[in-house]
Amino acid sequence: MKLAKAILFDLDDTILCYKDTCDIAWRKVCVDFAAAYPSYFESQTLNDAIQKSAAIFWSDNERNRWGRLNMFEARRQVVAAALSDLKIKNERLSEDIADTYSKLQYDYIKPFPGAIETLEALSKMKVRMILVTNGSTLLQWAKIERFKLHRYFEDCLVEGDLGYGKPDIRIFNLAMKHLNLPAAKVWAVGNDLQKDIQIPKMLGMYTVWNDIDGSGLKEDSLIQPDRIVSNISEIL
Length: 236
Hints:
Blueprint: E1 6-9, E2 16-17, H1 19-36, H2 43-59, H3 61-69, H4 71-85, H5 91-108, E3 110-111, H6 115-124, E4 128-133, H7 137-146, E5 155-158, H8 159-162, H9 169-179, E6 186-190, H10 193-203, E7 206-210, E8 227-229
Parallel strand pairs: 1-4, 1-6, 4-5, 6-7, 7-8
Antiparallel strand pairs: 2-3
Helix pairs in contact: 1-2, 1-5, 2-4, 3-4, 4-5
């Protein structure tokens, strides 16, 4: 298909590798704290408790949205609940674990192979680009500036700045208002079917799902992207 006049890009797990860094950082933090507190827990026991607590925390839509905008506190709550399940009551320890993880996970974040080169190529081809990302102002702009991503985008729409985020139709309408283009000439690229693909497809954009796990669509998926890739470099 002919390349778009403009593309709406997601950030985490589309341009930047995020999910895998979470897993790596949690394992490292759990090993380190288990070594420091051997009478409290083993590393795998702590990791399992944290993953269980995180799954419960992020499964609630309202809590998920609050947590995205208050990530440091959300992680503290996740770890506190995990330690409570392990019958450990130590607020200072839970905060230390969560805050250590937050710093380490941020340090681990990096662009996917070929992602920056793809943005550079699209920029040279005069494809207009807008970044549309959920998350807090502090964390998302820290990542944008760290990797100098703003130079590729006409605008960076961040949930924390606007007070609403994906899949709220308002953030996509705002992007389209900025572009002033027909939806048929715009692509939407992201890793989350519900947040990045569903509304743009409804609006008439060409949608590209970044299936980073290579898991493929579920047979009963109600959301059908127009194209599936495993790395954004494939759109060139």
